[in-house]
Every structure is written in structure tokens, then in C-alpha cells.
Design brief:
The complex is a heterodimer of chains A (411) and B (442).
Chain A (H helix, E strand, L loop, with lengths): L7 E8 L19 H13 L10 E5 L3 H4 L9 H4 L7 E5 L5 H14 L5 E9 L5 H8 L15 H17 L2 H18 L15 H5 L22 E10 H7 L7 E10 L13 H14 L6 E5 L5 H10 L8 H6 L16 H4 L7 H13 L16 E8 L4 E7 L1
Parallel strand pairs in A: 2-3, 2-4, 7-8
Antiparallel strand pairs in A: 1-5, 1-6, 4-5, 6-9, 8-9
Helix pairs in contact in A: 4-14, 7-11
Chain B lengths: L8 E5 L4 H20 L6 E5 L3 H21 L1 H7 L9 H15 E4 L10 E4 L5 H14 L5 E4 L6 H7 L6 E6 L8 E6 L5 H13 L3 E4 L8 H19 L5 H15 L6 H8 L1 H11 L11 H8 L17 E4 L2 E6 L6 E3 H12 L8 H5 L4 H13 L4 H22 L6 H11 L13
Parallel strand pairs in B: 1-2, 1-4, 2-3, 4-5, 5-6, 7-8
Antiparallel strand pairs in B: 6-7, 9-10, 10-11
Helix pairs in contact in B: 1-2, 1-4, 2-4, 8-9, 8-16, 9-13, 9-16, 10-11
Classes of the chains: A alpha/beta (411), B alpha/beta (442).
Chain lengths: 411, 442
Amino acid sequence: MSNLRRKVYMTGGYNTVSLGTGRKEFNPKKPRPGLEHYIKEAGQGCLSQIGGAAHVDECVIGNFMAARFNRQANLAGFFPMIDPGLRYKAATRVEGACASGGLALTAGIRSVLAESAEVVLVMGVEVQNTVKAIYGADILAGAGWYPDRKNGHAYFFPGQFSNRAGAYFEKYGRENTRKGMARWFRYMVENARTCPTAQEFHNTVADLDALGLTEPDGRSFVDYLNVFDCSKVSDGASAIAVVSEEGLKRLGLTAKDAIEVVAWAQVEEDITQPPVDPTEVSTIKEAVKQALKRAGITMEQVATVETHDCFTIAAVMAIEAMGLARPGKGADFILDGHTARSGHIPFNTTGGLIGWGHPVGATGVHQAVTIWEQLTGKAGASQVKIDPARPYGMTVNMGGDDKTVVSIIYK
Amino acid sequence: MNYTDRLKKVSVLGAAGKMGSGILLLTSMEMADQMLQDRSLSLELWAIDLAPEGLRGLMKYLRSQVLKAAEKKTVWLRKMYADRQDLVENGEIIQAYVDEVLALVNTSTHISDAWGSTLVFEAIKEDPAVKVPVLKEIAEKGGGNTWFFTNTSSIPIHRLDSEAGMSGSIIGFHFYNPPAVQKLVELIPCRNTKQELTDFANQYAKNLRKVVVPSNDHAGFIGNGHFMRDALFAIKKAEKLAETMSLQEAIWVVNRVSQDFLLRPMGIFQLIDYVGIDVVVYIMQVMNPFLPDEDLHSPFLDKLLAKGIRGGQFSDGSQKDGFFKYEKGKPVAMVNPLTGTYDPVGPINDATSGKIGELPLQLAWKEVNFSASKASQLSQFYAALKGMTTWGAELAKEYGVTSRKIGELLVNSGVAHSAADVNKVLETGFYHAYGPINEYFN
């Protein structure tokens, strides 16, 4: 793929709260807002920043498993509920497991590139607290290959990444890697404390390193990860407008209110096959490589990254896949402070999946919103310093066990 | 006979009761787990209770509780059902397990269905006159092959053994309430109890992941041995304080001091309500004849009972009115022992707070009991208390010293094997932040 034939921007980002354990208002025994509440809030939050529904040509929503979590399919039908101005407009729901949000973004980008739309309202949503985690694990297992479910772990995906962590420990050593994973957890919670919509915003634990180092217990959970190594169960939605230059004008906004999509890559791997090498995320590696190549930049020019840390070990491997650290050295890269908010290349500045939360279908869009906030100076207490000499932001959104990956580079 | 042979036919007597239902739950899951590990086993479980409506409620309770437990042990269950290709998702496996456990349980209102049991759990009325004939009947019909676990919390085991003619086939296996949640089991062999029975009981408790504290066979054992005397001290103290304040105020003061200054999960009068005033009176009656040097009896509690004030819990676990009326587990009104009517606790608290005075440090049980720095928090708290001379502090010290003396009495009179055992019972069975035999009240 060559350079983009048209400029594509994103603006008007909005996140609902990521609701689940950790939030003070969360009570598993009391009724909670449904799918429609989150879609409406995020959709209206974006529309109010772009002058209303009349400006929108098309809508896309990413969602993984509302059909099972909420007994609801056909999510495109929720757009006219957000605003009657969206009635009779084109709307699509896309699904790619935890990369559903990323796919919604690339679908929006394609529409703009195809000149079938100047303004696309892109959203992502997931409402997962409708079932207990042990049953949610069954639903999320749909992101893997179905015949693998029978011999998989009760907590299927933690089990998959626990196996990866086990293989990684064996190859590169356990102790230092676990320290790096624990430090990642700490950074994510610390970043989340700066962001009022984050699931860990209310977290007040003093010694996060110690908590992160809690010994895994395979009898009740998985062998090589503890619960702090894992993103939580979340309800939430995110929205952002994907627009052309003309679209920006229509909205009465300028390029300084927006981020430009410099390059993007969408990469797929065979879901029926196990990872080629469990100690690396090769599909992420390929996606990042393609995106950087199309953008014509190196990682050195990237100021901040939003990566898919569904598990701390996934972050360690992603850092290596990006080429920031050699294989086996991802934990050191974290322990040296490079990914901290004050570090050389701050990662997941609002907490990522572990700190901000992981409403599965919303995550890809949430990443875009965070990069938009950071690069336009709208990140509030979460704001990190962006060096004008390194003006790029990057996202990596992963579906399944390194199967569906979207990486986007912005400036 | 090996472990699982002993589980061939198990009967729980009083299965619909508060303790019996918990025992049935734990036993049914233990039996199902054994069958999952050895598919050739065929085990049966009888839930026996005289109340048919209670048995219907029991099955509902069992279904909901087994479901909860299965959700927590799905990691293990997936391994056990690995060969069942038709069971793929956690939801399917959990449901299969629930069905399997429930299929083990037969309900009956006839004692005769317990005949021929290999093991009987007895959790019927805490009254030797009720227990003895039932145990005797089943022992006779079992031809010496039936072993008995009794859940009595107060009756000496040797008395049941000799009166029911059980020749050592009985052991005290005292769960705490609720059995499914409380970790503690007091294990009380009598002098006759067969060693194999004691060994089996230890294995069973271990499989249930219970903390076992052995107790000698003295009425009340360790748990009630401490609680009854502690309660009696509190009542007498309140009566004494009532010479200078109203009786309501005096009870409130003792309740608050026993909770706030002793850092206990609830005040002593709340604990009496929780157990049931009627149950406390009854346990004292059972224990008293075995304690020639003491009079374990409270005319004050008798008077409350005569007014119909009983405490205890409803079947949904909520608290009945006793010394207090409760809302969401917190006391909101307090009985006037003279009239049997209730008054709001707010004014009673206001009238007595000044007199009690400040705590040594702003610390409560829930901040201490689960804290990683519990030991240092406790030392600081009680070091500060030691230097205090307020009225409340002096009362707290007297309370703490008395509790320690009760603990020491249990060791010295041979009820408990050691101070550590006494402390373990109070810490795990009563959720005290520390045991009564300590250095805080020297």
C-alpha cells in the first residue's frame, strides 16, 4: 500500500467511564446502565464536539460479543437512537474480537479514503459486567479457535497468555520478567489515577510493585499470571470522528483540533494455528513494521504509544515487537523507566487496558481518543510532554491471541 | 475400610437446620468430588429432617450454594470433566457439577433411612434427651458399623457415647456457623473414641479445607468455654454499672467497650443476639452441671427470654430482635430489659460516649484484622491503652484481663491442649483480631 491518497484526520474524541470493579460507583449486585446508555453517551459526546449529527455522513461501531453479553446484535441500529439526525444514514457494525474498535477505525478511514464519506462517526462499545467473570471467560473465548476451548483453561485467554508467559520465563528468565510485569502494572495504575474515566482512577494502593508481584496461583487462576497481570472486566464506550480535510472544514475545525492519520496497517494471522513462537507477538511485529514503513518513520520519532496490554506479558512482548528492546529485554525497558509517563516514550498514558479498562469492543477507539488528547494538548492531568521533534503517536490494537492487529500512526 | 468406603452411605440428621444444611452442603460436595476422581464409586447421601418444608427449602439452598462453590472451583472441575466432550464451556461444566451433587442427595423425614449408614452427622436439637435416643436407634440398627460425628457445641461426647451405647464410634465434630464459610472445626474425641475414627475425621476436615483445633472432652469445649464465661462477665458487669447509670446505658457501654477497645468484630451483646439468647441460655444449662466450681447461669437472660426476647437469625440470615434491633446488620434500637420495649440507640450512645472517652488510637477491627501490619498495630494500640486512665480504658483493661483469665482457665483445667489452641479458636471461630491469651493486658 502506498501513501494515503487523501488526508485523514480524527477529532472530537469522547470516552465514557470504564465501569467495573475498582470504580466506587460499581456494585455488582445493583442494576447498571445497559449497552444503549454507553452508546448514547459516547455518541452524543462526540457529536457535541463536531456540530451535531447533520455533519455526519456515515457511522461505524465496533463490538465483540453483545450477542452473548447483552443478547443484542445488529448494533448499527443504535445510531439513530443517539441522535435522530443519524436516521437513514449508512451504519455498520464490525467485529474482530478485542480489535473490533481498531477495525471500526480502519473502516471509517477507508470510507474517507474512498470518498464515500467526509465525516464518519466511529464508535466502540462493550458491556461485559452482565455475567460473572467465570462465564464471561466462555464468551471471550470466542476470540480464539472454537475447538481449542475444550482443552483450554477455565479462564481461557488468561490461560493462553499464561502459557506465553511460561514459555517466555523459560527462555529469558522468570524473576526479572515478573518485576517488569509488576512495574508495568504500577505504571498503568499510576496513569489511570490521572484520568477520571479510568477504571483504576479510584485506586489508592500504596505499594503497587508489591501487589504486582503477587505470586500466581494455578489452583484458583492460571500458572504464570496473577490477576494484576490481567485487564479487568469493563463496561464502556468510546467515540471519535474520522474526517477528511473537507470534513474538518464542514465541522468548522482546523488541523490543530485534530490528529492526522499518517499511516495504518491491518494485519491478520490464521486463527486455527497456535502462535509460531509463543515468546513473541509476530502479528503485532508485522503490523508495526508495515505502519512505520508506510509512515516513513522510525520508532525513535514516536512520542507516545497506546499498546494493547490485555496482559502485562503482552505489553512486554509488544515492546520487543516494536523493536524498542531486543527479545528478552522488554522487561528491562520497562524497569529502566522508558515507558513511564516521565520516560523517553510514555506508553498508555491514561492507563491502557490494565489501568483505564478494557471494554473489549471500545478499546481500539479509546486508544485513538487518548492519542488525540495527547497530541492536541487536551489530555488534562494525563498530559505528557510531546517533543515537537518527535511528533508522532502510535496505537496497537490486538484481537485474539495476536491474530487480528490494527496499528495506526498519527501526528 | 478406606476413606471413601466410609462415605458409602452418609446421613445428615437435622439437615434442614442452620448447621445441618451447611454440613450437608460441604459433605455433598466432598462426596461428589470423590466420585469425580474415581468414577467407579457409588456413594449415597441422606438429608434427614423432621420438617418436610425445611427439606424443600434445603434443596433450593443447596442448589444455589453448590452453584456458587462450583463457580469458584471451575479450574479444577474442567480437569475433572476433561473426558466429557459434550461439556465445553464453563457454564456447561458448572451445571453438570451442580446436577451431579444434587443427584447424590436423598431427602427423608424418617430416621429409619439413616439405618445402615457408614457415617452419620448429627446436627439436631442441642438436648441430650433428644439426641441420645436417635443416636442409639441408628447405632443399634447399624450393628456397630456406623460412625457418628456430632455437631454438639456443649454436651460432653463421652456422655453421648455411654448413654447411646456407641462403644467409641462417636466424635465431636463442631463446625462454626455458618459451616460453609467458617474455617474452624473443633474436633473432640472422647476417651473411648476409636483412633481410626479420629484419623478419618482429620482427613475429612482436611479435604474440606477446615482448620482443626482439637479440644478435650469438657462441656462447652474451647469455643463456648470462652464465650459463655465472657458473656456472663459482660452481663454481670453491666448489672454492676447499672448502679450508677440506667441498665440500658450500662449494656451499651459494655457492648461498645467489648467491640471498640477489644477490637472485636461485634460487641458481646451483639454476639449473644447472633447466637441467640435462647441458645446461650441453653448451652449454659448443658454446661453448668459439669462445672462444680462455677455457676454458669444468668437470671438476667432468663428474664429476657421470659419476655420473648430471643435473638437468633431468620432463615435468610438476617438478625431477629434481641438486645438490639438491627438494620443492615447494625444495631439501631435497644431493648429496655425492664419493659421489653425498644429505644433508639442514638440518645443512649450520646449519653454514654463522654463517659467512655476516646479510644487509644483511631482503629477498628476491620482495619486491623486483615492488615499486613496487624501485629504492630495491635502493640501500638494496647501500649497506648496501658497508659490511659479514662473510665472506658479501665473497663477495657478489666475486660481484657478477664478474657485472658478465661483462656488460661481453659488450658489449666485441661479443656484445651495449649494457649495457642485457645487463641486459634477465638481467632478463626469468632474472628477476634487476637486470641485472649496475649501480652496486651498484663
